[in-house]
Amino acid sequence: MLDDLDRAVIHALHIDGRAPFSRIADVLGVSTQTVTRRYRRLRAEAGLRVVGAMTYDMHEATRWMVRLTCTPPAAQSLARSLAHRPDTSWVKLTSGGTEIFAIVDVPDGGHPMLLHDTPRRAGITAVSAHCLLHTYLGGPVAWRGITQALTPGQRARLQPPAPEPGDARPLAGADHALLDALRHDGRAGYADLGAATGWSQATVARRLASLRAHGTVFFDIEVDSTLLGATTQALLWMSVSPGSLDHVAETIAGHHEMAVVAATTGPTNLLAQALCTGPADLHRYLTQRLGVLDGIQTLETAPVLETLKRLGTLGPAAGAPRTRR
User: Fold this and answer.
1) Rounded CA gap, 279 and 210, in Å?
2) Which of 76, 129, 188, 246 ranks highest by number of CB atoms within 10 Å?
3) 2 to each of 6, 101, 255, how far by Cα in Å?
4) Which pLDDT score, from 0 to 100, does residue 165 have?
5) What average pLDDT does range 156-161 have in this prediction?
6) CA distance 118 to 95
7) What pTM value is reported for the model?
C-alpha cells in the first residue's frame, strides 16, 4: 500500500499532470528532491504514468467497446495482439480470462467492418461491439480513489486554468505528432517533444499551452489501483430503460466506486467500471446501491482479471508487469 505522500503526489499529478515538481513540492511542504524520488519510485513500482489524450468531445474517431469471448488458451495471445494495436486502449482480460474487453477507435468515415483486420485466431467463440454514445464519467474526471489526498486549498493551488466552455479546437498538422509523443509520456520535456514534432522548444511550449487552454488536450494518470486498495475490479453491463438512462447514469457516476460510466449501443446500453476493496465490497455495492435504482432491467458483471493496456501507448517495456486498473 502507498503512504500519504505517495497518494498526495498521485493526486497532484491527476490535477495537473505537467505541474513542475518544484510546485508540487511547495504545495505538499516537502523538497523538490523528495517529490522527484517519489515520482520515480511510483513509476517503477506502481505503474504511475502521466498520459496526454484528446478530449473525448474532440476525438476524431468513433469509439467502440469490443467484447471477444475466447477459449482460455487463445485469450492471452489475442489480448496482447490487441494491446499492441495503435487504435486500442483499455485492453482487459475479464470473466476468469475467457473474455477480452477493449476500446477501439475507428476514424470518422473509416471502414465499417470494425474488426476486419483483427488477427484471425482459432478459439474466438463470440464477438460483440458497442458504440460509445456518451460519457458520464471518465477521461479527466477520474476514479475518486486517487483524488482524496489533498485539501481543497492544496487542490486550488495546483489547479490549472479551466478551458473556456465550447472553445475546444481540432488538432492540426504536427499536433498529431505532439499528441502521439504525449501518449507515451505526458511529462516529456520540451526538447523531446520538439524532436517528435520538428518544432523548436518555444513553439512546442506555446502550442501545448494553446491546446490545453482550448480544452483540446487533457492529461490523465495511470496507476495500479490495487495499491490504492481497489483489489476487485468489474465491468458492469446494464440494460436500462431509455427514459431512466440519464438519471441512472448520473446517479451512479456520483458513486465513489465508479471509474467509468458510459452509454452505448447494443442489448445493454450502459457500461460502468467499478473498483472495490474486495468481492464482499462489490457485492454490497451491487445489492445495496446499484440494485435499488429504478430503471435497471438487467445487469451482467464481468470481473477484471488483468489489464494489459490502459490509456497510453505501449512502449518498449510492453512486457512489464500489468495491473488491474
Assistant:
1) 44
2) 188
3) 6, 28, 23
4) 66
5) 93
6) 21
7) 0.85
Summary mean pLDDT of the chain: 88
* The 3-state secondary structure of the chain, one letter per residue: CCCHHHHHHHHHHHHCCCCCHHHHHHHHCCCHHHHHHHHHHHHHHCCCEEEEEECHHHCCEEEEEEEEEECHHHHHHHHHHHHCCCCEEEEEEEHHHCEEEEEEEEECCCCCCCCCCCCCCCCEEEEEEEEEEEEEECCCCCCHHHCCCCCHHHHHHHCCCCCCCCCCCCCCCCHHHHHHHHHHCCCCCHHHHHHHHCCCHHHHHHHHHHHHHCCCEEEEEECCHHHHCCCEEEEEEEEECHHHHHHHHHHHHCCCCEEEEEEECCCCCEEEEEEECCHHHHHHHHHHHHCCCCCEEEEEEEEEEEEEECCCCCCCCCCCCCECC
CA–CA–CA angle 143, 189, 186 (5° rounding)? 20
